[in-house]
Give the backbone structure.
Amino acid sequence: MKTKISTDLEKRYNPNKDAFMLLNTSSYLDPRFHRLIHLDRDQQQEVRERVKSELIVIAEDCGGYEEDGEVAAMAKGTQEKTALGAMGDLFGNVYQGAESADASGRPTVDIGNVLQQEMLIYESETPLPTDSDPLSWWKASGSKYSHIAQLARQY
């Protein structure tokens, strides 16, 4: 009986099918199952890449981001002045790589790096218990993961 069920599920949800990616992307966006422990490493990476590409599309549709936006604050993090602050002032953004300038000379943020950071923070969250309500969690945590929350709403 188990073999029949397994064979049937394999036919329906083959990793090469769109349904497989849909189901696992939905699992990634569910804070109870976002670690994707049911998949092997290659499949996990494939799902994460798909999520990131969808997040980039959403971010670009919103019109891009500049230095004064919420994304820039997230990319910079909280930087305190320290004794090493002079080195940061001296070298500026040479080694950070997340920022560049647009045609007008205003700094812009590489949205890919920002989204990658948001995903890493989200993935480090402790999974919710399986009997928890993921919609309530997203309502409470949506501002912390604004881009991922927007994609989760779509799914």
